[in-house]
Structure formats: C-alpha cells, structure tokens
Amino acid sequence: MALKHKKGAVSDPDPDPHPDSKKRKRVGFASTEDTGIEPNDCINIFAVKTADQVGSTNCLQIEPIDLNHFFGQDGKIYGYNGLQIDVWLSMVSFHAYVDVSFQSKCEGGKGITDLDVPFKSIFGESLLDKEKFVQTFSEDHDYVRNIIADGEAVPLDSSMKYSNSRSDNKDPSIEVMRLGMQNANTGLLYSRLVSLVLLLVDGANPIDVTDPRWEIYVAVKRSPENGLSNSKVEMLGFATVYHFFYYPDASRMRIGQILVLPPFQSQGYGRLLLEAINSVAISKNAHDITVEEPSEYLQYLRACMDAVRLLSYEPINPAISSVISFLKENNLSKCTAKPSTGPPASLVDQVRQNLKINKKQFLRCWEVLIYMNLVHENQRCMENFRLLISDRVKGEILNTEDGVKDTGKEIVEVPNDYDSDMSYVMFRSERGEKGNLGMGKDGGDEAKQEEQLKQLVEEELEEISNVVKKVSSLIS
C-alpha cells in the first residue's frame, strides 16, 4: 500500500465546475478538533482490466457499501488532513493496489488511524504494491481460465428458460462453471473474490473454504483474443452454495452469496447464476433451495424467475383457477370463517419435488400468480385480494402461520429483584379482545395500528405489482 505526503497540497478554493462528475476525486479533511473522516468520503475504488488503467481515475468506479465497520469502533479515520485513498481492483486476477495520499498528519486527541489494518482485513494477501500489481495483468492473464479448467459446466434445464424471451437464445460464449471446494484452487479463488463480497454485499461474511460442502458457481464469458487458439475468459459473476444434509439421504441447497461483478451488472448474469443453481438442484434431486438473508433485490429477482417457472407448470393451473373463481363470487369481508385460498399441501410438495421451490418461496409466488389472473376491473375481486394480503401480513405480525388461529396469549414484563430472567407473566386476553399487534408500543391505540397495517399492506401490494410487471415483460 502506497502512502504519499503531499507537502505542497492545498485545497482548491474554487468550486468544481462539474460537481456531479462521477470521476471527481473526493478528499477528506480532519478539523482542528479532529472529528474524524468518514471512510466513504475519502475512499475511491476503481475496477480495472488492464495495466494502463492503474493509477487512472478515468475508469469504472465502484460504489461500496458503508465502510465504517472496517475502521474501529466509531468507524472514522483520524489524524489526517487532505486524506485521499484510491483503490484499484483487478477484474483479471482480483488483486488490489491501494494508494494513500494526504497533506499532513495531525494529533487531535484520538490518535492516527493505522490504515494498513482495515485494508488488510478487506483484501488480505491479495493486497499488493503497485509494481507487483501491474505485473499481475501479464502474469495472471489466464487466471480465470486456469481456475475453471477443473470445473463442471452446468447445462441449463429447459424448464428454466423463459418463453419468447432472450433467455431462449443465450450467447454460447457465456456459461456457468461449478467448482467444488475439494479443489484447493477453488478456495484460493474465493480468497481473492471475498474482497468484492465485503465491499459490495451488506452484512456479508466470508464462507469457510475448508468445508467441502461449499461450492462456487462462476459465470464466465469466452472470447477469441488476437487470433490465439486459447480464448480469453472473463468472470462475470459468482455465487456460493452450501449443501445441508436432509434426512434420510438428500441435501438442501442454500445460496450464501451471489454477486455480479461491477462491469457486468444489469445484463442478466445474476439470473443466469440462479438458473444454473436451479438446474443443479433438479439434476441432483436436492430437497429444495433456500437463500441466506437475501437482499430485497435478490428476493425480487427470485420471485420473478420462480413465477415464470410456475406459469409453465401445468399442475398449478386448476388450483389458481379455483382461487380466482372464489374471489370473484364471494365477499371475504363478510365471511365468518377464514377461507382457504392457499395452495393445496399436495401441490406445495409437488412444486418442491419438481421445481425445488421451497414452501415459503412458493407462497410468495402464489400471491403473484393470483394477482396476474385477477380481473382488475372487478372491484370485489381486487378488494378480496387486498383482504388476503392484509390477513397474511397481520398473521406475520402476530407470528402465526397460515391457518393457525391466534391464541390471544400475551407476555408482559414484571419488575422482579430476584431473577431478571424470570421477570414476566403470560396471560390470555378476554374473549373478543385483541392483543398488541406489535405495530406500536401502545396496544390500545387501534387506530394507529390499523394505519400501520394499511401501510404495510400497500407496500406488499406494490411489491407484488412490480413482480407481475416484470414477469409479464419476460413472457410477452
């Protein structure tokens, strides 16, 4: 990591004529009291593919997540005036080079932050000085191609393809390779990729590369290079998957991380990785697929993909038609008993067995499919659907599963000097009374709770509507 003291450097008193320029350098200044510098205000990260891009800021800039948790307790950098940190991250070998420059150091009562520590925690052994970093573009030119040589190409199952969409005509130069952690080189690859996970995935933790139950799916693109017989191979993105044992002789596949590299985002490669994982789950007869703490966007993407798959799954059609007919012909607000509008248990199991969609994900897609088949001009039909969503949201707040009646039990904390762990009592509310829905501290403020419930329902309906719009565009 290079540190440079800019002796004659001063701040420019004139404002930047292009304040919105993405490539504009950001410089951090500590005040006299040294209140510290926010890392995201002085750190610029650039994705580079060639040696001549190293040192240049005229290349793709990566916007990392909040970097504060890498920098001590309060997440700030202390002891520098005019601090600027530029990071170049290779999209070829996944090494990194960090250049640190500042006007002066200052002791403002909180010491001087050791910048080596946080960058070592992010990049580890992949952090190189400039000379070695530049050399990697020639020495590790074929790094990705060599790594995936021992991998297994994943054939995409025909059930994964979207009707009348560009997914049916995939670029033959793009494929997904499956790499097992039993191969030591797979672990070394992940040790380089983990910096991208830490920088771009909020709350991510590195996987255990010593556990053979982990595997990596790598999306790559092959392209001819200067007439050479060996094609150039670029990594587009990757996903990590863990295999849990499922009694008696199956496994559950859990997606730990999925990341498309910054230069290739918004081009459908995340969907490609998910399709590859679905294909392996079906071919290996896994029990189902789950995702560890998915982001909102990943949930949206999975819902779109699985809804498309379910649309072409014929056994689901009679059940959906039955629910639609019920919503057209009945008024749910006047029903004395909660109607059953969810999928039959046998269908839930069929979907899990054939498509590897777990129950929770299927229920999410079930609402999408119902909404797609509703007659939106039918006011009763739409109001009934809204009530279905409201009942589901309320059930989640009450921490009850679909079809399980609320017992009316509540827990209330009671002061107790004897044992703080036993300072509560449980009681059952009187018949007809409603307990606190968990939407406000004041359990008696029903108007406030109803307003909160209404807002949550509107948010759920908007999410469903957005998925339906995307699904409709994929199948049209």
From TrEMBL:
Known EC number: 2.3.1.48
Keywords, in A-Z order: Acyltransferase, Transferase
InterPro entries: Acyl_CoA_acyltransferase (IPR016181), GNAT_dom (IPR000182), Hat1_N (IPR019467), Hat1_N_sf (IPR037113), Hist_AcTrfase_B-typ_cat-su (IPR017380)
One GO cellular component term noted in the UniProt record for this chain: chromosome, telomeric region
TM regions (residue ranges): none
CDD domains xref list: NAT_SF
Disordered: annotated span: 1-30
Keyword set includes rRNA-binding: no
Record's keyword annotation contains Transferase: yes
Assigned protein family: Belongs to the HAT1 family.
Entries under Pfam families matching the protein: Acetyltransf_1, Hat1_N
GO annotation, biological process: subtelomeric heterochromatin formation
Lineage of the species this protein comes from: Eukaryota, Viridiplantae, Streptophyta, Embryophyta, Tracheophyta
UniProt-listed Gene3D superfamilies: 3.40.630.30, Histone acetyl transferase 1 (HAT1), N-terminal domain (3.90.360.10)
Protein name, entry field: histone acetyltransferase
Gene Ontology MF annotations: histone acetyltransferase activity
Domain N-acetyltransferase: 234-289
Organism encoding this protein: Rhynchospora breviuscula
Residue ranges of domain Histone acetyl transferase HAT1 N-terminal in the record: 38-202
Reactions mediated catalytically: L-lysyl-[protein] + acetyl-CoA = N(6)-acetyl-L-lysyl-[protein] + CoA + H(+)
